[in-house]
Amino acid sequence: MSIWGAIAGGFVGTLALTTILRGGSELGLTRMDLPFLLGTAFTPDRQRAKAVGYGLHFVAGQLFALLYYAVFAAIDERSWWLGALFGLVHALFAGTALVSILLPLVHPRMGSGQSAADSNPMLEPPGFMLSNYGDSTLAVTVLAHVIYGAIVGGFTSLSG
User: Tens digits of per-residue pLDDT, 93-103?
Assistant: First the structure.
């Protein structure tokens, strides 16, 4: 098992995940724009936020691939289907604790249930299981993360 397989899988997997999420948005299946959501945590400039967000998303994809790799190494097991299972857990964590609870607490431009009436947030909070961004958002997000995990697991298992 090679760390380079995880890095390559992280890059390809993040490219696939990002493409699926963008495609879901373009097809009207979701209103979520994950790079914009990430980027606006660092800048109020909408164009710059997308560029920063895409960069952050790719960095996060690499970090998660390394985390998957560490778990594969710890349990001495790796495969595309185990990666897909990790992707499912990853998506459920992202849809619950990460973006519906933690992100609104720290994101300076996201509204929340506790926002003051005179505040002017740029973003609506995602809500539990991303429900505020459209009925299909959860399905698109889970599919994208399962594919990401399968790619990372597949690359990792092919690398040795």
Answer: 988 888 777 77
